[in-house]
Each structure stands twice: as C-alpha cells, then as structure tokens.
Amino acid sequence: MESQINVVNKRLIKPIVYIVDGDHDLQRSLTKLLEINGVAVEVFESAEDFLKTKLRTRAACLIVEVNLPQMDGIELLEHINNLGLRLPTIVLSSGSEVAVAVRAMQAKAIDFIEKPFIENTLIKRVLNVIEQV
Amino acid sequence: MQNNQSESSLSPPMVHVVDDDEAVLDAVGMLLDSIGQLNTCYKDAQVFLNAYNEPDFDKHNGCIVLDMRMPVISGIECQHRLEELGCSMPIIFVTGHGDIPTAVEAMKQGAVEFIQKPYREQQLIDAIQKALQINLKTQKQTKKVQQTHSKLALLTKRETQILEAVVSGKANKVIAIELHLSQRTVEIHRAHVMDKMEVKSLAELVKIVVDASPAE
C-alpha cells in the first residue's frame, strides 16, 4: 500500500521550472518539451510578473532571458539572491556582449546560454539541475 | 577594531600578473606600482607555474591577473592547473579575444572577473581590489579553521568523544549512559572541552566545530 501511495505522490509532486521570457514561441516549445519530461512549467512575461508569484517549495529551476521589459534578467537574479533564496538559474540571451555574460555568472547563474540554442541541450541542462536538487 | 588588528597581522597581498605581451605586462606593472600595490610580472604561464611551485612562494596571499590567450599554456589551462594545485588565490582574466562561451567557462571555474581589452585602468584596479577582498575573507576563514583544528588536537580521547556527542545534540544524561560514566564526570569533561576550545556557549562551540569540518 505504502509504496503505491509514494508512487502517486511522486507523480503529483512535479518539480517546477519557471520561465521568464517574452518570446511566446520559446515559451510554448520549452513548456512542451519540459512537460514531456515530467516537469511542471510556469511562464512569465516579465521580472515583475515573476516576483508577484509565491515561490513554491518544489521550485527547481529558473530560466530567464536577459532582455526583459523593465527589470532585466540579471537584475532579477541579483534580486532573488538578495532575498536569500537559492534558485538554480540559467540565463538566456540573444546578441549579448561578453560583459553581460560575466555579470550573469557573477550573479551566480549556473549557466549562460546564447540564443539561438539547441533546445535539447537546454532541456538536458535543466533536467540535470533538477536531479541535483 | 578587532578586524583591523587581524587584517594588519597579514602581510600585504601580492598581485601576480601573467601576460605574454611585454608591453601590457610593463603597463600593468607600472599601474599597480603607481597605486602602491605589490606585484610580480611573469611573461608566460609556465614561468608563473614554476614560480608557484617554489617552496618559498606565498600561495595564499594575493590574486592573479591572467591573460587568456598565451602560447603553450593558455589562461584557462593555467587556471585548471592552479585549481589542481589547490590554489586559493582569486583569478581575474584579461583578454583581447573574449567570446561568451570562454567567459562563461572561466567564470564557472571560479574566476572573479573577466575583463576585455581594451579596458580602463580603473576597471582593472576595481577588479583587483575586489579579488583581494575575497582573498582576505578566504584567508581569515582558513585561519579560523586552522585554529579550531589545533585546539581540537589538544583534547584527550575522552574529551573528543564528549565533544562529538555534545555537538550532535545529546544531553549530558544521555552521554553519561552511552559512555558508562556518571553525569558529573560528563559535566567536568564538558567544562574542560569548553575551556580548551576557548568558547563560552554551546552555540559557539557547535559553530566553530561545524565551520571547521569539511564542506558538504
């Protein structure tokens, strides 16, 4: 009996990946790929939107674009760090300079990936992060 | 006040500059001289690594400014080797040909800064100051850990047993039963442990012991 309950629990307690990126195509395709892999996804248009939500205990990973309407992705990451939260974060960016990548890594991002990227590479990286949590 | 005292007890930090371009090396050396910062210049990574392996080389006090693209041993390769050697000095990368993947890789390996040429002099100075601050913090932590270890070495076998039990949260009564001692004896041993470890409270004792035990 007990093991059955555990299996059910496991299925219910999916890790959550947060995506903060205004690109709808990217939102859609990443969501699909992550859900296939048994991960719940929550999507946000801006850093402000993301900060309005309450982080859950099963929060596993944050994927954030540097270029966001107001607060940028790295500022968001710095803000999260200042709150004393530790959420493994992968920063995405298109057409960025080296200095931006350095800033992201100094803000303790676990990776910085340039767009366009191969989706499977990102998904693998995310699943890797979730396993380690 | 206490902080100032412990800072002054450390010798002035050394900045190690490694670059295969002699003009750059001279310029950085002069810049650092002009702000009164001790520095040593090396014309390539091999020369630096040789110096590093000398017995009288101070491996902990200072920071390293590494050029990324150098013949034979690149900056990244040098970083890897230093890591293998257990180098605790922070590394600042300087490069004329920076790309994002290289920068990300270097930062993942623990570099504190990655500066692209041409840079403003102030940028390098800021980075060096930041690196030296980080280094000072590391050194202080290491020193504390060493002090704790030398104090731990002074404990008798019995006292070590008691210490372990106390730190894991056991009450005197429980320890007494487990070690077949009277409660009074445990209390006395415990008082000796506190004396020898030079702490006033249980919380302090737990903190220094946990800080000194190897990282998770």
Provide structural commentary.
The complex is a heterodimer of chains A (133) and B (216). Chain A has a single domain, classed as 3-Layer(aba) Sandwich (Rossmann fold). Chain A has 6 helices and 5 strands; from the N terminus they run αβαβαβαβαβα. Chain A has helices at 2-12, 24-36, 47-52, 73-82, 98-106, 119-132; strands at 16-20, 40-44, 59-65, 89-94, 111-115. Chain A has a 5-stranded parallel β-sheet with strand order 2-1-3-4-5, with helices on both faces. In chain A, strand 3 (59-65), helix 4 and strand 4 (89-94) form a beta-alpha-beta unit. The longest helix of chain A has 14 residues, at 119-132. The relative contact order of chain A is 0.16. Chain B has helices spanning 2-9, 22-34, 45-52, 75-84, 100-108, 121-152, 157-167, 172-178, 183-196, 202-212; strands at 14-18, 39-42, 62-67, 91-95, 113-116. A 5-stranded parallel β-sheet of chain B has the order 2-1-3-4-5, sandwiched between helices. The chains are: A alpha/beta (133), B alpha/beta (216). Chain A binds chain B through residues 96, 98-99, 101-102, 105-106, 111-112, 114, and chain B through 98-101, 103-104, 107-108, 112-114, 116.
